[in-house]
Design goal:
Keywords: Hydrolase
Shape: globular
Pfam family, one: Isochorismatase
InterPro entries: Isochorismatase-like_dom, Isochorismatase-like_hydrls, Isochorismatase-like_sf
Number of helices: 9
Oligomer: single chain
Order of helices and strands: EEEHHHHEHEEEHEHEHEH
Structural class: alpha/beta
Protein name: Cysteine hydrolase
GO molecular function: hydrolase activity
Radius of gyration: 17 Å
Distance between the termini: 12 Å
Largest sheet: 6 strands, parallel
Strand order of the largest sheet: 7-4-3-8-9-10
């Protein structure tokens, strides 16, 4: 069986069951003037991973393996936004409010869009998710079943919130999860480090972590 060099031990990869999930690489989280910046975050930490995320996406496309994108966003009428979520964060700019890139985290608004460098191509699935985890109130589970996927490589932001939440959801559903270290990021380096440690603790209790180059080397021979 093929393996990807990983921590805490090699990831036993099945290329015909492997998909890439790119979490929330959206303008509102990565660009100056977006929702992430409004919370006082250094968005340059997010944009610096774009080249590695792009390399992963291109590698999966070249290998003919599925690429799935997620976007955190809500309906324009906010019917899928719990007050408990809206009431947290920046009190002067909340989800649904008008911001520099349109209404914050609302489906169809400019700031909600995926960064142009990482934009989906025809045939790639885009999951619009109202929660942190990509399985909650979405069709992700059905999509993965239809594609017969059992192993998931994760990239995107932020490591400790939407990425880790989705990995934990996937782990509980029986998927084998691998986090691409250079292709994920947090506004807080200590949070990324802690999330990585938690993911691969106790013999990959949530999943594995691997470097982008090692993942690309493996799928190049898929």
């Amino acid at each position: 069986m093929a393996e990807i060099k990983a921590e805490p031990f090699a990831f036993p990869v099945k290329h015909d069951q492997l998909a890439l999930i790119v979490i929330d690489m959206q303008r509102d989280f990565a660009e100056p003037g977006g929702f992430g910046a409004s919370l006082g975050n250094d968005v340059s930490r997010i944009t610096r991973i774009v080249p590695d995320v792009k390399r992963l996406i291109q590698g999966f496309r070249y290998a003919g393996l599925p690429v799935i994108h997620t976007m955190e966003c809500h309906r324009p009428d906010l019917s899928d936004l719990p007050p408990a979520k809206r009431d947290r964060g920046n009190p002067t700019l909340r989800i649904g409010d008008e911001g520099p890139m349109g209404r914050v985290l609302i489906a169809g608004e400019p700031g909600t869009a995926i960064l142009p460098e990482l934009a989906p191509v025809k045939g790639e699935v885009v999951i619009e998710k109202p929660g942190k985890g990509a399985f909650y109130a979405t069709q992700l589970g059905e999509v993965l079943q239809q594609k017969r996927m059992k192993q998931l490589v994760f990239a995107g932001v932020t490591t400790e919130v939407c990425v880790q939440t989705t990995m934990r959801e996937a782990n509980d559903r029986g998927y084998e999860c691998l986090l691409a270290v250079e292709a994920t990021e947090s506004y807080f380096p200590e949070f990324k480090a802690a999330a990585i440690a938690m993911i691969r603790a106790q013999g990959a209790i949530v999943g594995w972590t691997a470097h982008v180059d090692d993942i690309l080397e493996s799928i190049a021979h898929a």
